[in-house]
# Entry
Amino acid sequence: MASATNGSSNGAAKSRFDPHFTEHVVNLMSPDTKPRHREILSSLIRHMHDFCRDVELTQDEWIIGVNYVNAIGGAYKKNRNEAWRVCDILGIESLVDEINHKIATEEGLEPTSSTILGPFWSPETPFRENGDSVVLNMPADGQLTWFHGVVRDVETGQGIPNAVFDMWQASTNGKYDVFDPENQTRHNLRGKFKTDAEGRYAFYCLKPTEYAIDTSGPSADLLRIMGRHPNRPAHIHIMVTHPDYVGVTAQLYPNDDPWLETDVACAVKEDLLLNFKPTKEDKNPECTLDCEYNVRLISRKYKPDAEMLKTNANIVGGK
Amino acid sequence: MASATNGSSNGAAKSRFDPHFTEHVVNLMSPDTKPRHREILSSLIRHMHDFCRDVELTQDEWIIGVNYVNAIGGAYKKNRNEAWRVCDILGIESLVDEINHKIATEEGLEPTSSTILGPFWSPETPFRENGDSVVLNMPADGQLTWFHGVVRDVETGQGIPNAVFDMWQASTNGKYDVFDPENQTRHNLRGKFKTDAEGRYAFYCLKPTEYAIDTSGPSADLLRIMGRHPNRPAHIHIMVTHPDYVGVTAQLYPNDDPWLETDVACAVKEDLLLNFKPTKEDKNPECTLDCEYNVRLISRKYKPDAEMLKTNANIVGGK
# Structure
């Protein structure tokens, strides 16, 4: 039971509210509660209580929150994971990604930053040859790009042979192949490439196009309240793996994109920017742009338990 | 865009994660965001991020949380407000109630503690005469009680005439009148009483019976994970009002109830306990118990904007 003083203030320095209430709730957990459950729920209870006290949440505001949480689940359906969207808007998916993938060598050398996987990775993407094109269906407004680089060991700087550079991107209409069967054949704008003896990969793709997330439902209501737009910067997804290294999953963004600073999913990091340069020398006359991006991988010895792939997209379906 | 260092640690003392990320997300809010929205959402974002960092939430755990939030809304239906139930279990409804009703005189004198309203208050409860019984349908296992007391000014100690003492309680089967039409007529175990010239009220009611909340759905899953039972201690609801005083809404609990310390809704406070004493002297031979409870009210001058009634039960329907 929470303590209540009768006729005298409790003298708590920090808060005028019962200083024992939060610990009372935490301590309702059974001694048999699994340690990780206890750790997570204790922290959640403490932070939620501190939030209520910090803003002195009114009952009307609390009821708005209760109704909002109910509405999130009410909007859930196949290919629409509303709680996931809300997490993206609040930066939670991006933060959890950082928490799980932040890693550095003893000297503080960091591999290419991880960022959110998104729901559109496919385990069935075919391998292609270096120099091939992933553009199976060229849109009229597409800008064909020669995309190339080296996958290096972050400590030695040496190229890593036989790394897998898996990439996927939306077409210029903002849609991925599986959601756009009228315009795109399966595996359009997707490909896996194996790095050569010097760690090099290369292919043709499109300069990516920015798109907005769906602007209906509770997640969009949240954006409106915050005065935020629904746009993601244009991006190319990559997942780079090698058995001897910790894999990197990231999104790469053109450095001239207007939404870099205000990405609705809060998933842009400085080392993930791309510089698309005009080219007139490419052997393919349709190709007008050149883009080089080098990836840094860190030895698996720094995280022996790292999974090869980040595949939560498969667990929950699309959003 | 969140900053990412390339090849050197950022030197943040407290966290190994990007020390600028949370403020980046907060600052995505537009300058036009309403100040209260900004205050609430900034605090929510900071606390949710701190929670994720404090427990180093894994991606699998985060996805469990995403699915759980979706499931809460999926369980919502008429007379079942799942997000509200989860808030009760986490102590959030009780805390918000304290935040909104904590009040004291300049000398630190406090009125009777507020506690959660619950969903079963009725605006249609009839006035009855002091000395009447609210027991319209006597259950076989009921214990008739002479319930009486004085409503006093917390500063002067004087009885307050013409205060309204509104009470409601479940029957011995744990059900309120509206959900138990086979056994209970409308307004059974409900009544409003006006205090007399000395501030006294009195009526016959039942000694209340403890009951469990529904043990299905996501809220019950949460209880199971925490190793907690679903029981509320027995209680009588009261709502005491007077135009010159700040109203008090509370639940009163028998001091011998087994669930006082572990109330599933975390809503017990020390000054809300009742002492039921055996009696053989009552004028009504069926009456076996006597219970006295005195209420302390605080002058409205300490909270001139206080609403007369706490009626959020009407806003959202039952839970």
Remarks:
- Residues 79 and 317 of chain A are 6 Å apart (CA to CA).
- Chain A has a mean pLDDT of 91.
